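[INFO] parsing input record for Ubiquitin carboxyl-terminal hydrolase
[DEBUG] input buffer:
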Amino acid sequence: MSSKISGRVSPQPCPHLLDFCSRNGSKPFRSLQDCIRVKPPGGRAAIRREPFEVPRCGTCNESSRPRLYACVACAAVFCHAPPFHSHASAHALSVPGHEIAVDVDRAELFCCACRDQVYDRDFDAAVVLAQTITSTTSTSGSTVTQCKGTGSQPDNLRKRRRVDYSLWAPNSRENAIIENHSIPLHDATNGSLISTTELPWGLRGLNNLGNTCFMNSVLQALLHTPPLRNYFLSDRHNRYYCQQKNGATLNGSKNSRFCLACDMDAMFSAVFSGDRTPYSPAKFLHSWWQHAANLASYEQQDAHEFFISMLDGIHEKVAKEKRKTHSPGTGDCCIAHRVFSGILRSDVMCMACGFTSTTYDPCLDISLDLEPNQGVSGKSSVAKSNNSCNVEADCMGSSQNCGISTLKGCLERFTRAEKLGSDQKFFCQKCQVRQESLKQMSIRKLPLVSCFHIKRFEHSSIRRMSRKVDRYLQFPFSLDMAPYLSSSILRSRFGNRIFPFDGDEQDACNEVSSEFELFAVVTHTGKLDAGHYVTYLRLSNHWYKCDDAWITRVNESIVLAAQGYMMFYVQKMLYYKASEKQAASWCDVRK
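[DEBUG] output buffer:
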């Protein structure tokens, strides 16, 4: 929900949704439960009066618009197709009290006045209940009967068929229509229109190929990662040369081998070609499926899991070709590790004699736990915060949490010394017995681009349940990583008494700048198994919302109010090595 933030307070809820709920009682959305259809069982929910109903816009009678919304107050269906027009918004403005609608294809709440998604626990409870009923009835084989004369099963029990994807290309007539009727991009900050000459270079939407918003959101961030962008646009990886070297042909023969770096090179060429029509990354999706066969499906996947899997795919391909023996932590093996790879330091100190065991581990990102609520212990904070929010929502499987966390607070918690439990005693080489110990994490080497992953999805094998943590996270536009470096941690632990074996930490932190600037935020809205990913990009001093094929300019307040899942920060100053000398060069992340 797009709400402006002032200071350090949580984003305010939509006033139109509050007014609707106050006028319609405590459970205004339970009547929609009979209209919620889930297909296939366990899949995405949709709004239909009848299983085979084809909704159409009440104004233009179109059924193929990008978004169709059903008014909750009168059940009328209208389309919303920014930047061209929005009949849903026109209906909301003409009839007071009809601002809240439901996406008929996604079963998600939408405020037509604010032109943004909104959230309500009662509505999510109705969707979850419908999904539960559908999954329960689908598991009972004795209740499934075929219709006489048709031999077909009910709509929500049909298997999803995989169809071959065919890329659409406009013909001469359609090209003429596009050129004559194109409208500039809509600016959500002030309602004005943006001419194509004002758009940043490379800003292009990505088509959803079937629950691929997780992929599109990460690709948008990577396409505008400054070091990665400069690498591919300077032809450092040429897909034609790579395929010829490996004996592959460009037409995808049986002997061709997938290469994610080649597909990234093709994607960079297409996105930065100047074409503004949405791009379909079908070839990249197919190559990623070959690399991660266990994730090859049209089901929704985790954006963070895709990010790690994709970088590993680029690394494995390049490492095999170059036969390099570099460690991933050095950042010299491939472009993925040169941009994102850092080194974490782990110190385990014996509480009896003070002996410290130090290990170093390479990392492509840092996964952070959200801070527990104030006055609540870490183990019980989640349960208590849920109970304080809404007992009924808990019964329905809601994952709404109270409280506010900050990115700096999460980093401080990550690098804070913690006492290991009695069941985690480590063997002290000096005492020659197992002793209780203190463990502390720190960052020995910063990457060029730091990716912070927020652990919003929790899985409990004991309770056999999974849920999403919706707690609000505050994150800064500029971030100083100096307090979390190993050199700073050691200095705070020992003062000026830095021991000789720790001297290399000072050299490691001097190679890079500790000042970082935010340029991309991947957000997740909705529930654990029925959510949607959106990316916010900072380009040319403006923020843009990338929602699959749709690009909209937004205010900073909307970015700050978003539910951050992955944050991408780039160093404000990058160091380039020329021979044996280092030359500092400013990297403008806003262009």
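[INFO] The chain has a mean pLDDT of 74.
[INFO] shutting down worker
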